[in-house]
Amino acid sequence: MLYKPNIHTVGVNIIKVPGKLKSIATLVFGTATNQLIGIVATFILARVYSPDAFGVFGSSLAICTIFSVMAALKFDLTVIFPKTAVAAKLCSFISLLTICIFSIFMTGLLFAINAIDLIFLDFPLIHYIVLTSLIAFEQIAINWLIRNKSFKIITLITVLKGLVIAFLQYFLKEADGGLWYGHVCGYVFVGILYLIIMSQPLIEGARAFSKLRLFYFVKKYKKFPTFSLPAGVLNTFGNQIPILLIRSLFGEQYAGYYLLVKKIILAPVDLISTNINKVLSQEVSHNIAHHKPYLDGVIYYIKFSSVLSAAAIVSTLVFLYVDGIILLMGEAWREAEVLAFVMLPLAAISFVSRSVSRFAVYGKNEWGLYYQFIFATFSVTSFYTASLFTENFVVVIATYTIVICIIYLTQIMLVLRISKQHMKNIGYG
User: Are 173 and 109 a contacting pair, CB within 8 Å?
Assistant: First the structure.
């Protein structure tokens, strides 16, 4: 007869929770500081840059963000899984090699679509290639640090990145495209730091590299480019397409409004929930590798993030009620305040959803692909369809918000279902 542990021994040992909270707190401190720097910088930069400038910057960054998800073919996620350090180093090297190859492909692709005016590039092509590669490489380094539980290093670099980017964007305020050039240069700085940290693992990974090991690697982790890659691309596309559509349909000014509001109201999501996800991913990966359940951990983090989400929304409401955006940024951003109220439900639900997402970590790459296809499809269709019936920008955003909130709630339910099924599969049901 199988042993059935009680509720306190399934997935998460209650005694270990404080340790998990400490890991989250370490990451949150760094991200909190970075977010604080970013928010303060945004309020300052909003007085020296126009909404149009933010719109151009946001749409250009969206292009790089979408391509950065493709760059490593999602092999960057494999760094977390191997039981041995040698295998993890090999995964890191292969992921970086994939990025280098992809950068060549991206150069030709962007050149072609820019030539036929499918996508308008506001800045030189090389800038997009460099920034895309650096964003992708950052994920390899972060996953390596997560694997080794080096949360303090992630925290330190996160804070430095925020400071450097904010300083450079303000310093370049007189230059055309100062927001963009400051961001790119800031990522170059961060890329150098991560390269220093990853130099030894990458060198050892290169030494361990061989055709036979490459074949074994691709065969073992084939689900990542097959399922996680399109899922990641669809997710990023669904998140980034609004600003591209807004710029196309309503102009740079409204794209700037959307970028700024999204940054402000989703700050708690980036601040806390993404870090909860990092810690939970490490825990889930460990439990799966050792054939242990993780349902209690998922439930715990859903409840934990829900409480924090409520607190964040209340704080944001107070900020908006006292006209915080107008007071800090000026009358030019008044329409952004209305938009913020409309998008608050999206911030609340995405806070919880992003805390427990990443289907690949749960071993359900296929589910992730199906979900992200639905997410991207409804993201585009809800936005574009609403724009066909009304020219009111706020109504279009409200429609988009309602649809995406429903999608995020669906994701939470799917994660719970996967967790319960896993527990049954290993005999704890």
Answer: no
